[in-house]
Design a protein that fits this description.
The protein is mainly beta. Helix content is 4%, strand content 34%. The protein has one domain (2-103). The chain contains 1 helix and 11 strands.
Length: 122
């Protein structure tokens, strides 16, 4: 349970007044996708989205780049390992995406799933 201990606000997250985790998804390889309102996890810069290993260490092979510009509130792993995220964001890696986006397994934006004109609120 070390990973869960490391994800408590103040124990491994930083950013804002009260950094928060709002969404978790466990992938088939047992890594954990973490979404919320934070700027780092366990000392690694990650803005609102990260993937951690079972021991709480940040998986650097998952690189969201600039990532979402606002809070992530939901995360879903599809059967093909692509990832759907939802939340307050209007950009992902500086590309317009209104509150929903699909990512490739490595954290990069799946450009074929265009939601630039999607939902107007989370």
């Amino acid at each position: 349970m070390a990973a869960w201990t490391n994800l408590r606000p103040g124990a491994g997250l930083s950013g804002g007044i009260l950094p928060s985790v709002y969404a978790l998804a466990i992938q088939p390889d047992s890594s954990i996708l973490v979404g919320g309102a934070f700027t780092s996890i366990n000392g690694s810069a990650r803005t609102n989205l990260a993937r951690v290993e079972w021991d709480g260490s940040v998986d650097t092979s998952f690189d969201p780049g600039a990532g979402p510009n606002q809070t992530i509130r939901s995360v879903l792993v599809q059967p093909d390992q692509r990832i759907i995220i939802g939340g307050d964001f209007t950009n992902y890696a500086s590309v317009p995406r209104k509150r929903i986006a699909r990512l490739n397994p490595d954290g990069s934006l799946d450009a074929s799933f265009n939601t630039a004109n999607a939902a107007n609120s989370w």
